[in-house]
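Kindly review these tokens for lecture notes.

. . .
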Amino acid sequence: MIIILFVIRFRSTSACAQTASANSPSANSLSAITTTTVSSTTTTTSPACASCTLSQLTLTGGTVAGATPVIPTAGSILTNASTGCSSVVITCTGTGNTLQMEFNAGNNGVITGTTTVSAPLMCDSNGQWELSLGGTTAVITAVDCISV
């Protein structure tokens, strides 16, 4: 008697399944994405010549016998775009024949006109208002006007 024996060998697919699942992401594995935001702060410091305020000026009507006191008015503080420094124009408007504007009680100059007198004040590097008049520059803290 002759016996023929055939051996059929089947490969196991479990090894392939294990390899496939090890190399591909499963539903439970997620990649984390991290976003980093970097911010920077720029500090700009204004020059001292931009720090003047109207509260540094006393604007009053003058007190001269026979004259009418006129209270000066300050315009808006303006800033020079190229220097960053401030300026303001002080104006007196009167009704008499002569109008007089005094600075620091007349100690730092007088401007005379008819019905309107104006003077530009500049904020200096020490943060003080100053006036240049007649070749002299002085710190101004008070302006008064009279009309005669």
Notes: DSSP finds one helix and eleven strands in the chain. Residues 14-23 form the longest helix (10 residues). The CA atoms of residues 49 and 79 lie 9 Å apart. The longest strand covers residues 86-93.
